[in-house]
Amino acid sequence: MPLLTIVPTFPTWHRPYVALYEQTIVNQFDAIIAGYSGTIKQGLQQAAPTWRLPYWEWATDQPAIPVEFTTTSIQIYGTNGQLTDLQPNPFAYYEFNPIDPSFSGSYKVYPITLRSPSTSDAKAISQPELSNENLQGSDLKDSTWKIFSEASDWDSFSNESTKSADAAGPMGSLEGVHGTVHNCTGGTVPRLFGHMTNIPVAAFDPIFWLHHCQVERLLTLWQTIYYAFPVPDTQPQLSNIHAQSRLIANREEPRSLPKIIDCNGHIR
Amino acid sequence: MVTSADIQSTLTYGYVYPEIKAHPNVSQAQLAQLVFDDVERLYGGTNVSDAFTTQSEEETVNKVVEALGTGIQQTALGLPTVSGKTIRFAKVNPGGHYELNPDTYQDWIVNLAIDKYALGGSGRIMFFLCPESDIPEDPTEWPKHSDYVGVYDIFAYSTPDECQNCKALHEAGYKVGGTVYLTKPLIKRGIALIGDEPEKYLKEKLQVRAYSITTGDVYTPEMLPSLELSIQSAGYDATPGVHGPGRPQRKEWQIHRDVTGGRLKEASTT
Predict the structure, then answer these.
(1) ipTM, interface predicted TM-score of the complex
(2) CATH number 3.30.390.50 is the correct assignment for the domain at A10-241
(3) Does the B107-269 domain belong in CATH 2.60.310.10?
């Protein structure tokens, strides 16, 4: 499978995948809501069409994994309208069933996705406080500001590829900041790292999608600001997948969700 | 197959972000400026140079403190003094003061470029301003070290052979690169941003270490043949212009080849 990193299409390549993930969640709503009744059902029916994938705002002074994604147990309102007993929080981790035999290293034995794992064996637990320390020591707010205030052409903003360190001026990029968040979240202790630190398994961690929604949001804001800067055609071998930049922001109300986005990103 | 050109608009998939929806009925250029202002409110306040844009001397000091961190007044430097558009910072060794204004202010950065697979997977390249002997051997201590000044993260497969495009780009000679800003660490250490002080200081004190999160291997610069470093500095053009919406124009970046010679080891041993 091709992976679009260190190329100009790094940000836009991810856009349909985030949309497809959002749609996959939305497609579960009707079946779930059907189990409810009364005012709860009405409330859910009203809320469902407006639901959008949240983004994880990590470009702050004190970035941290949202508590909704670290709490290991939660209560939810059941179909009878009452709070359930504590149950595992599906946002805290993904449980492999079974573990994919192609996984390597500790991922062969980790039964769930982990962040800053405590050990390299199957008994490992996540240590989100260590991930948060990593995030808070990485100047994410400053790095994000720099890609808005210093990078005004698509190539330097979008991806971290370069031929030389002597390229004039700062080389911070959206892809670079994105990579820091991956490493900090998964864990930075040598040989003891969680899924977000490793490309082949990163997307199994539920926080991956909120992270990429933030990347997608920053892309949108940057495109809106630098609408006048065209996407250069610097890599002919990849030029079939980029074109002139144009204003992406339309002040319309959000439309309703498209009915189907297929696996190739097309709306049907 | 959908292409990037097909999905340049978020409306293709039927959504819009609050920062954009908040500004209806404005021109494209106005929207760009308004969204830039929002982004600056969210993420700005981190540049010392922003202090020159204030309306009062008190605001200027506050901006400097905001950029450097509220603990700066407790350090030996103390608060800077301001007169008009001139900010007077303390310096050490030799002591005294130096003055910055919009014409003399310079940002200092170190750019790096490296083979994306040099660390055998994901890893961290970390920068310090201290004698080499002060850097702990254990990389887990590096982020908490008082002289740690910045990091560049590599998020990568173990080898370029693990994805089709990775291999093609690697064979084409592409590296990955990033930047660590040195301006604030220099000010905090009482190094004047002007004259030859930054070059001298960086030549003596700038250190780089890397480690692979994937393999646990620790690297000094000489163990990473693909690693390139470039120290650069630039101020802002006092003439109003636009870099992006509402931004002053950067002066040309100057490369300070003497600091690293492109490679830190050569510079520190000659």
Answers:
(1) 0.92
(2) no
(3) yes
